[in-house]
Amino acid sequence: MAARLSGGGGLITYMVAAATLVFVVAPLVVVVALSFSEANLAIFPPVGFTLSWYADVIANLDFQHSFLISVVLALAATAAAFAIGVPAAYALNRWPVPAARTIEAMLLSPFILPILITGLALLQFMATMRMRDAGVNLFIGHVLVTLPYLIRTVTASLKQVDRTLEEAALTLGAPPWKVFWKVTVPQILPGIAAGCLFAFMISFDDFPISFWLANVETMPLPIYLHNSMSKVFDPSIAAMSSLMILTGILAVIGLEKLVGLRKAMSI
């Protein structure tokens, strides 16, 4: 009887998971399908098949500029979040830092606050401080919203580290820095990789922060896509969105090649 209940519960779980997957993936499939349409407007089902919209988008200098800005900004924000987040997570987890809980809550606060309000607050702060460089402002804003992902995943990884291995290395005479590099880092590497992936995708796909802090010269791809949609909604918009989806897929494949996707996502 217990086996039957377990089997039924498993079937229901798989059905719910499949329905959720279809719910999430179906809009992406529609967008990709529209990008190959021969019609002059984005209509579904698509009409015919053509790659001309991709050719037009890739040849568009404004799109190239915005895409490059988004990639560079995402890489820079991820690198900065990594440089700050890994030491911060390690210190909060291993050292007796005063008010550690309060500091951790402050670092993770972008998870709690509405991101649109965070962007507006940053705009107000930077206007008060007379910070007029859009590139610098975007970088600061993206680091702020991506940093919690590194801290969260690295903290979770540190809690799963086998401390006996570290203690054994210290007992055998290894200096602390070498214990960290040779013993701790290999164990938390999947968490670091997952945090970097999340940080890159959040930054690359960010609209609320960029909406408040971007300008005409420094316009990330989501803002460029939004402005293009306000003019005309043709299959070129779907082609741009498909290229953004492809960028995310390539980032996931890169993570799989580096550390293994299942290991990173098990954090």
Keywords:
single chain; 267 residues; mainly alpha; MetI-like fold
Structure description:
The chain has 267 residues and is mostly helical. It has a single domain, classed as MetI-like fold (Orthogonal Bundle). 77% of the residues lie in helices and 0% in strands. It contains twelve helices and no strands. It has helices spanning 2-34, 52-59, 61-94, 100-107, 115-128, 134-158, 163-171, 176-204, 208-213, 221-231, 235-258, 261-265. α1 (2-34) crosses α11, α3 (61-94) packs antiparallel against α8 (176-204) and α6 packs across α8. The longest helix is centred in the first third of the chain and has 34 residues, at 61-94. It is globular.
Q: Structural class from helices and strands?
A: mainly alpha
> Residue share in helices?
over 70%
Principal-axes shape call: globular
Distance between the termini: 34 Å
Total count of strands: 0
In total, how many domains does the architecture comprise?
1
CATH superfamily: MetI-like
How many whole angstroms does the radius of gyration measure? 22 Å
The run of helices and strands is HHHHHHHHHHHH
What is this structure, in a nutshell?
This protein has 267 residues and is an all-alpha fold. Helices cover 77% and strands 0% of the residues.
